[in-house]
Every structure is written in C-alpha cells, then in structure tokens.
Amino acid sequence: MKQLDTKRILVTGGAGFLGSHLCERLVADGHDVLCVDNFFTGAKVNLARVADRPGFELMRHDVTFPLYVEVDEIYNMACPASPIHYQHDPVQTTKTSVHGAINMLGLAKRVHARILQASTSEVYGDPSVHPQVEEYWGNVNPVGLRSCYDEGKRCAETLFFDYHRQHKLQIKVARIFNTYGPRMHPNDGRVVSNFIVQALRSEPITIYGDGSQTRSFCYVDDMVAALLALMNSAEHVTGPINIGNPCEFTMLELAQAVLDITGSKSKIVLQPLPVDDPRQRRPDIEKAQQLLGWAPKVSLKEGLSRTVEYFDQLLGVTKIAIAS
Ligand code: NAD
Ligand code: UDP
Ligand code: UDP
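# uridine-5'-diphosphate complex -> structure
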C-alpha cells in the first residue's frame, strides 16, 4: 500500500547531472518519480541506481513537445547547462527553455501540480551588482553566443510568473549558481570537470583569460537539499531565490585546489577568454537561509575530493574498456 505522503513527481531532464541526483533523492524519500529526458546531454547510466526501483519510471521525450501525464509536482530541469552543449544547437536551447516551460506550465495548470523551475545565475549575465541579490535585473547581452541560454531562462522565469499571476499556479523559481559533483559530464567543458580530468590525466590545466574571474561552487548534495526545501516551502514562497554556495574563488585558486587534491603535476596554461564570460559571480543567499532554513554544508575541498574520486573511477574504467 502507498504511504499517504507519497507524491507522483515529474522530473524533466532527470537523466542529467543535477536531475539524476534529484531523482535518486526523491525515490529514496518514497515518491513515485517519472523522469522525462531526450538524452541530449543526459544518459541512462546516470540513473543506474534507481532504474530498477519500483517507484521509478523513465520516458524518452523532448519537452518542446506537449506531454500529457498525471502528476502532483514538477521539477523542470530539462536544458543543457554547459556552454559547449547549449551553444551546439542554440535554437533548440531557447526552444527547450521557452516551449519547454510553456508545455510544463500548461501541464501543471491542467493537473493543478506545483512546479519548480531550474533557473540560473546566468539571468544576471555579467553582473554589475556583487554579490548578486534577487532584486538585481541583470546585465545580459540579448544577441550574443550565451543569449540562447540566458534569455531562454529569463523568458522561462517570465512565463512562470505570468502563469502564477494569470492562472494562480503554485510556482517555485530557483536561480541555481555553479554546481558540481559526481556525474558531471567529463567532456562538457565546465571548469570543475575540465580541471579535474586534466589533472588526473596529467594534461595542462586550461585557464581561460588570466584566471582572475570568479565563481562560487555549490556541491550537488547541497543543491538537491535546497531544491527539495524550495518545492516544499510555503505557497507564498515563489522565488526567484538564489541557491548556491557563497564562497567565491578565482579560477586560479580553483586550479590550485584541484592540483593540491589530486597531487597532479599538471602545468597551468592560459587560453583566450570566451566572449561574454562573466567576470565575477557570487550569490547572496540570505533569502534561501531565511525562507528555506537552508545553507550549504559541503566545503569546496570536501566536494572536490568526492568529485575527484568519481572521475578517478570513471577514467580508470574508461582506460580498462579501451585496453580490452
Ligand atoms: P545537464 O546537461 O547534465 O542536464 C540537463 C538534462 O536535460 C539532460 O539530461 C538533457 O538530456 C536534458 N534535456 C535537454 N534538453 C531537453 C529537452 N528538450 N527535452 C527533454 N530533456 C532535455 O545539466 P545540469 O547541470 O544537470 O542542469 C540541470 C538544470 O539546472 C538545467 O536546467 C540547467 O540550466 C540548470 N542549472 C544548472 C547549473 C549547474 O551548475 N549545473 C547552474 C545553473 C542552472
Ligand atoms: N500542455 C501539455 N500538457 C498538458 C496540458 C497542456 O503539454 O497536460 C501544453 C499544450 O501543448 C499547450 C501548453 O501546454 O500548448 C500551454 O497550455 P495552456 O493550457 O496554458 O495553453 P493553451 O492550451 O491554451 O495553448
Ligand atoms: N574556464 C576555464 N577553463 C576551463 C573551463 C572554464 O578557465 O577549462 C572558466 C570560464 O571561462 C569561466 C569559468 O571557468 O570563467 C566557469 O566556467 P563554466 O563553463 O564552468 O561555467 P559558467 O561560465 O557558465 O559559470
């Protein structure tokens, strides 16, 4: 017999990095989880730990097309997150954010589901307010290479708030800052995975620009805890709400931390800075602390160690597979 508090929960993009950790946690909490993914950047292997659990179901589907299912809650995570992936097919990236949001909001409206949007710190663009507070409207190039992601996510936020005002939907908008951990894609070009893979392979660590730009890195378990806290928060807590770890590091500091943890002898090399690369980024998380009672617990050193362990195993397995 089902427990009374068992919910039917849809996770779009559930086969990706964040989504797969979220699915695992929701299944562990006893919910019925429907994961929907088109496998553009995600993979079934990310869901190996839940694939055979009775409470878990996986559906291949692209959220730019309508979806008719019956659920109580929706976590809308579908969208490639790394610049290499989201710039590969920028039109599809915007469609995923915008058409995907419309379809999931339409679904939420029909079945009266509560819906959470995985938004991003990229809505602040290259910020002139530091640290970033939710009230800051951002500094985004509307026609650049990153715009398909940034403006797509901004439009999705607009749609969430219009469905909330116009159709009384229960919405939750999380502005997610850089998150890292096991199951990041080894080739997706994001800085944490790049540096760790390069260090483990004794290849040069590629710093773009002079390495003085900053980011604030949140470990995946802390992020999942915050997303759950937001979904389960009081109805009036709609966000947008910053979720991230406010400890800020330059890319040079990050490279050094990875070298220290791996003991690698990799050299640091400087490469050109990508266009529109934000100079600095750090969340103000006062709202998350006050409204959700949440704060990150995992330090960069601890989180990087766990991530290095994952990549160490992954690359080891790859070597064996190639050798055999
Ligand atoms: P990811 O690329 O690992 O996962 C995205 C998932 O969405 C993949 O499984 C992919 O196959 C799926 N997907 C993409 N387009 C789809 C479509 N049209 N239909 C169905 N599925 C589709 O990225 P992630 O890091 O896990 O990010 C998850 C979400 O969190 C994204 O919405 C991203 O914008 C947001 N986010 C992530 C970060 C971060 O640092 N990881 C930061 C800010 C926001
Ligand atoms: N939609 C969906 N699943 C549903 C209900 C709606 O995918 O269960 C999609 C549908 O394709 C629609 C969109 O969500 O285009 C927006 O729905 P809404 O009811 O807001 O608008 P309308 O149907 O009037 O276009
Ligand atoms: N970066 C870097 N070397 C790399 C990959 C990225 O120096 O091999 C830099 C990148 O230019 C940016 C920062 O690291 O300044 C974070 O990049 P990422 O793509 O991980 O995230 P985002 O720019 O979306 O925050």
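# post-check
The longest helix spans residues 300-323.
The chain has one domain: 8-322.
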